[in-house]
Amino acid sequence: MTIQLYGFWRSNAAFRVKVALALKKLPYEEIEVDILAGHQFDAGYAEVNAERVVPTLVHDGHRVFQSLAIMEYLDEIYPTPRLMPESAKDRAYARAVALVSVADSHPFVTPRVRKHLAQAYDADIAAIEAWCAHWGREGLATYERMLTERPATPFALGSAPTLADICIAGQKIIADLYKVDVSAYPRVAELTKRCFDMPEFAEAHPMRQPGFRAVSL
C-alpha cells in the first residue's frame, strides 16, 4: 500500500484528510502544492487534479479529490476505526454536519475566492478578512444550533470522532484564523477542545505543519 497526499499546510480541506489518515493510522507521503503562491494552477498539477485544488489523495495509483470524497473512500477501504456511522440515519446526519463547512462555509474563504474579491471588487485586506470572518461565524452558528438540538456525547455521533467532528474542528480553525470569538458558540468550543486534545487532530493543525509560516490571509 502506498498513499500520497498532495496538500498544503494552510489548506483546511487537507487538514480534514490528515486527521482521517491519522485516526486510521495510515502512513502517507505528503507532496506540497503551495496554494498561496498559485502552484495549484501549474500545468503539472492540473494533470493530477482536474479542479486544480488540494488535497488529492493517491492510493496505489488511484487519484481521489475533494476532502469529503477522500474521507469516505478511506472509510470504505480501511473501515476501522469508522469515520461514518453504521445506520443510514446517522450517516445522513454526519454528512449534513460535514457539508455545513465543506460546502457552505469554507468555500467562501478559499484563495481563489479571496483573489476574486480583490481583483473584481477592489476589496482590500481588511474587507476580505471581514468577509472571511463572516462566513466563519455563519458556520459556527449553524454548528451551535445543530449541537443544541443533538448534543455531543462526547463527540457529534457518540463515543468516538467521526467525519462530522473532523469538519467541525476544521471550522474552528477558520474561526481562529480570522479572529472569530468562539466563546459565543460554547457547544462548538467544548466539542472542538475535545477534538484538539487528541493528537490526531492537534498534529494535523495548520500551525503544527512543517511549512507553517505567519502570513496575511
From TrEMBL:
Question: PROSITE patterns from the entry?
Answer: GST_CTER, GST_NTER
| One GO MF term | isomerase activity
Alphabetized, the UniProt keywords read: Isomerase
Q: Do you know which InterPro entries this protein is assigned to?
A: Glutathione-S-Trfase_C-like, Glutathione-S-Trfase_C_sf, Glutathione_S-Trfase, Glutathione_S-Trfase_N, GST_Zeta, Thioredoxin-like_sf
Entry-linked SUPFAM superfamilies? GST C-terminal domain-like, Thioredoxin-like
Question: Which residue range or ranges hold the GST C-terminal domain?
Answer: 87-214
Q: Which residues form the GST N-terminal domain?
A: 1-82
Instruction: Say yes or no: keyword Isomerase present.
Output: yes
Q: Which family does it belong to?
A: Belongs to the GST superfamily. Zeta family.
Q: Which PANTHER family match?
A: MALEYLACETOACETATE ISOMERASE
Database matches in NCBIfam families: maiA
Q: What is this protein called?
A: Maleylacetoacetate isomerase
List the source organism.
Pandoraea capi
